Amino acid sequence: MWHDYTNALIAAFGLSGLAFGIGQLAVMLGERMIEKRHGTTGVRDAMVRRAKMEALFEARRNDRVTELREAAAAVEEAVRDRAVLERRLKSAQQSGESLVRLIGEEVKGTPCYIAMVANKYVGTADFQQSQHALIDSSWAQPQTIEVWAKSMAEARAEIERRYPPAFGYVVTRMQDVGAPAAPAIAKAG
What is the three-class DSSP state of 123? Predict the structure, then answer.
């Protein structure tokens, strides 16, 4: 008797599994027929591809947001640095101490020349209405430049290399620092 019940139970499980498989097959075939009839073939593949693309776009967006934050921080730091430098420049200009620009290196035995250089384009009537785009307004007045060179001609060449006359820079005065103020005249006896 147990044997008959066991066989019936196994047969019932087998038939229910077979019915489940047939049902799944019918559902799958029905879905395919509906997809073909309504023109939605490959929708599942497209959805899978689009889901992958969405994930990649989201990762790319996060990378760009991170880069943008870093760039914004760098810009903010540059703005702060510029403000500090502008304050330092303004205080240096107001302190009464003159700014001296140096050209060359101080080497023992090499004479130092002091030159006064101005820019003829800054401060002229053409540019007084607005600031010059590339040259600071302080160049309207002669600026002090110390040049370390072997000769006055070489010193002038170095100044003109650094501050080209083509851009409006003009050497207004130049003197040797070590030169005596007035040569002594010896009386003949």
Answer: coil
Closest CA to 144 of 179, 109, 172, 111: 172
Residue 184 — very low, low, confident or very high, per pLDDT cuts 50/70/90? very low
Residue in this structure with the two tokens 């003159």, named with its chain if needed: 98
Question: How far apart (Å, rounded) are the C-alpha atoms in residues 44 and 74?
Answer: 45
For the segment 60-82, what is each residue's pLDDT rounded down to a tens digit? 999 999 999 999 999 999 999 99
Q: How many CA atoms lie within 13 A of 113 on its CB side?
A: 22
Do 116 and 147 form a contact (C-beta atoms < 8 A)? no
Task: Give me 44's structure tokens.
Answer: 């599942």
> Which residue is listed with tokens 């990649």?
56
Q: What is the Cβ-side half-sphere exposure of residue 136, based on CA atoms within 13 angstroms?
A: 10
CB 173 within 8 A of CB 116: yes
pTM, whole model, 2 decimals? 0.42
* Residues 19, 17: Cα–Cα separation, whole Å: 5
